[in-house]
Model the fold of this input.
Amino acid sequence: MSETTTHTHAELSEQFNADEARVNWHDETLWWVRQKRDKAAWTLPEWEQLRETASRIKINTLSNLNEYLKEFEKNAQKNGIIIHWAQDAKEHNAIIHGILQKHGVTQIVKSKSMLTEECNLNHYLEGEGIDVIDTDLGERIVQLAGEAPSHIVLPCIHKKKEEIGEIFHQYLGTPEGNADPQFLTNAARLHLREKFLTRRIAITGVNFAIAETGEIVVCTNEGNADMGAHLADVHIACMGIEKIIPQRQHLGVFLRLLARSATGQPITTYSSHFVKPQPGQELHIVLVDNERSTQLGREDFRSSLKCIRCGACMNTCPVYRRSGGHSYHTAIAGPIGAILAPNLDMKHHADLPFASTLCGSCSNVCPVKIDIHTQLYKWRQVITQEGHTPAAKTVAMKAMATTLSSPGLYRRAGKAGRWMMRHMPWLVNNKLNAWYKQRDMPAAPKASFGEWYKKNRK
Amino acid sequence: MAAVKKNQPALEELPSLADIDAIRFDNPQEKFKQVLEGIGGTLLIINSLQQAVDYVKDNFKEGNKYITTIPGLEGIEKINNEEDAHKLEDVEVAIISGVFAVAENSAIWVTGAGVKVRVLPFICQHLAVVLDPRHIVNNMHEAYERIAGEGYDYGVFIAGPSKTADIEQSLVLGAHGPKSMTVFLLDPGAL
Done:
């Protein structure tokens, strides 16, 4: 799993950048998804009103979260749902294992849930002898490849179809060399249909949980959450406590924003509302804190809990698009992941808030108006104060601060730099310069802007 | 829960949804059709339920299992309420009725009580939905106004056939659920 890596974002990006053609393809594909998002947003004149309303609903939710959680629990129980509370990932995993043991089940299906990725559930259950089949096509592909999802909405966006064809040939027996998406999808359909029909317990995620009614809403395009849940004896839905929204009518706001922001679709194919278990079935909901209450107490970072996991910030991010999701070495990659992860383990994720240009594009596309880039900047300050930045960066930043605070030193340093780049380019165009990696250094001008202005001013 | 209470900020007001100036269409039915076709669905206007039966028989594999929840569809097997969900695995076409639809995204609201067995609209190879065109609302806010106080046990908005683009962003219809979705708008004059 990527969780256990000891490499930094910069090191992992370097691996991803080794194949320039692939990086360009990854970059362009995600930008295409971003453009689809724009087109979908522009069809609605009230788009900005929707974002503002969604943001304010979430702000209200976070300011009254304990009451909404109590209300949700009460109403869900009234509907015959069994509610569990988990303090952390370990408790979450143990609760699920307990339910499986109670039913004597060792094989399950699971639809997409980023929370279970965060809790490393698959790895834990495998250690307990449980066979877990991920049923989202993208997740199944990365599961067969022994990898983690690289994107929360598009789990295998880093893979080429030829590689997927190879994986299917190896595990599902498709003909060697067949990389046709239609053919491969149909092979997965047949493979997974058998699993849906034979597994007695299904796990799903949760997109929204409604305090007022005690119901949960799960959104998919493939229909895998419903196939799993409706064909199983036991449905377990896992959610972070921030997935609560106050009222059913608020779904109108969030469902209008979610798919348009994620993929540019007007809505996901299925938006399923689970109120009561099917006759004869058990429905469990596991509500997980796992440091969310800590983030709630961090004034500068609490609004990250407004996130509805659409992935728009990843698709637009110039760093994500060119470094790939795995370079973030955390379950949730990209800009939002980089402000959620330091809350879980600041030291281990100290590099992530620096994996950004702070261009602000993420904040501009966020459907619930999280000030993502501001929070990235604020995390840098917290991380530096706590002493988690690498030594080389600290020395370089100090040298830069000295230079920038002295006009004389700044002019002399600029002159020296330009002379060096013109006369000894090999001094900067080499592997010792981190800025030269996967980039060409620009040609240096003869004069600085200051010198040019002095000469040309009339 | 104690930590949540301790760390949550001072109460902020809940906004009113009445302020949202949500999109409306001159012709919601036309918008519904346009969006549905854009996401891979097919729309047909029919004057009688028999036309739906004929269309299904003409367009889907003969000899396969058709099943419906609509009593008036003659010659099509009716679903048994007590049916084991797993036995629906061989259903080629399921014909169900939609409660209402939403023009902005062509989603159709279907309830568990309406389909009898929840898995039916997912497990079939092809899905057909009969809809009264008078029940097409403009947007999702109007949709939730309709179902705000409803007592459903399970409900789902279905918009088009099941799909995936997980392999290199190539759109493929028919991921785990139906490979196609046909919507029959039953002319209200014929009702």
